[in-house]
Write a structure and sequence with these properties.
Largest sheet: 6 strands, mixed
Order of helices and strands: EEEHEEHEHHHEHEEE
Strand content: 25-35%
Strand order of the largest sheet: 6-7-8-3-9-10
Number of strands: 10
Radius of gyration: 18 Å
Structural class: alpha/beta
Length: about 230
């Protein structure tokens, strides 16, 4: 495999101190390559969401190192100064619930991610419509979130995550609120994105009905990788 887009080595993270300390991650090493879709599973409290938040540069690890697309991000401390820019330009995040802004229609929910990154509004709206078409929800571009089905809203959320052409796509339980058919559609779209845009996709899930959509399933327990298949 070519050099991974996400490369973590011996990442540890604890919360609390003394008798209340919780080791959320314990020497976790994981690599995800371009075009690869990897699932993270495990019981509640196993460290899945903590690991996702470390990759997203939302949580700083206590030790270890990690790289994104060959660039050192953490090695005892952050190696880049502008984490917000990193997240805007290179990381797309998809949540369990779409979290669309209720006062903006679908196209403006997507365009907002680009205008916040400095894209001119007309260009942002043009790309937003292209993304919505790409994700087969273009006909709903002018609909408000309250008028979208669950599957449509999640596709708009995926479009928003892709707006700034990130190489890393992180998703936290993206299909938990969807039925089986819509869940599989969402995962097939994420695979399409991974392949066509050479992105690395890392998904936290408990949803057994989509396990067959992953290249690998990584199982965590008590902050450690228990298995990877």
């Amino acid at each position: 495999m070519s050099k991974p887009l996400v490369d973590l080595a011996n990442i540890s993270k604890t919360f609390g101190t003394g008798d209340t300390v919780v080791r959320a991650l314990d020497n976790v090493s994981l690599s995800v390559g371009a075009g690869e879709v990897v699932g993270l599973k495990g019981p509640s409290g196993s460290g899945k969401s903590t690991l996702l938040n470390v990759v997203a540069c939302i949580l700083a690890p206590d030790s270890g190192r990690f790289e994104i697309d060959g660039e050192a991000i953490w090695d005892g401390s952050y190696r880049i100064s502008d984490l917000r820019r990193l997240r805007r330009e290179r990381i797309g995040f998809i949540f369990q619930f779409h979290n669309l802004l209720p006062f903006l229609d679908a196209v403006d929910n997507v365009a907002l991610a680009m205008t916040l990154a400095g894209t001119e509004r007309t260009a942002a709206r043009k790309r937003a419509r292209e993304l919505l078409d790409y994700l087969q929800v273009g006909k709903r571009a002018d609909a408000m979130p309250s008028r979208l089905s669950g599957g449509e809203a999640q596709r708009v959320a995926i479009a928003r995550a892709l707006a700034n052409r990130p190489r890393i796509i992180l998703a936290d339980e993206p299909t938990a609120a969807l039925d089986s058919e819509r869940a599989r559609v969402v995962m097939d779209l994420l695979r399409q994105v991974a392949v066509e845009q050479s992105a690395a996709v890392l998904v936290v899930t408990h949803d057994e009905k989509i396990f067959d959509r992953f290249d690998r399933m990584v199982s965590l327990r008590d902050g450690r990788i228990e298995s990877a298949t």
